[in-house]
Specification:
Strand 5 and strand 6 form a beta hairpin. With about 130 residues, this protein is an alpha/beta fold. Helix content is about 20%, strand content about 30%. The C terminus is likely disordered. The strands form 3 sheets. The chain has a 5-stranded mixed sheet. It starts with a strand and ends in a 6-residue tail after the last helix. The chain is globular. The protein contains 3 helices and 9 strands.
């Protein structure tokens, strides 16, 4: 999922223009809570391909500030950007899969979702 991302500096929140927006491709993983950014992604956000990256960073993902960890060096996903469930909850987004179209989207939480789940689960609305 391609999402507009930029660094956030909690000490200088009054200067959001200090960091450029970068399109970051995330793998959305509903089985993990944390969000991870690869070293290459953090370097791109810093605007310095030679930067020494030692830890994660606060980032703005589509207008929501989340902390993105640096993947462990020995992990199988160290070069992957992972958007975890905590970030999705903070963004108020949920994954929606469209099997007929072979597509996936992050949808804004809808107020009618609860009624739709009840209808699917019980075959009717709870107040019928």
């Amino acid at each position: 999922m391609n999402l507009v991302t930029r660094l956030q500096d909690p000490l200088h929140e009054d200067r959001p223009e200090a960091w450029a927006n970068v399109n970051v491709f995330f793998v959305v993983v509903t089985a993990v809570r944390d969000t991870y950014l690869s070293e290459d992604a953090i370097r791109a956000l810093l605007g310095n391909p030679d930067a020494d990256v030692a830890s994660g960073a606060f980032v703005d993902v589509e207008g929501t500030t989340v902390y993105a960890n640096l993947p462990p060096k020995d992990s199988h996903f160290r070069e992957t950007n992972v958007l975890g469930m905590d970030a999705l909850a903070k963004m108020n987004k949920f994954p929606d899969v469209y099997f007929n179209e072979m597509a996936f989207a992050l949808e804004t939480n809808r107020s009618d979702l609860t009624d739709e789940i009840r209808r699917l689960k019980y075959g009717r609305f709870s107040d019928d």
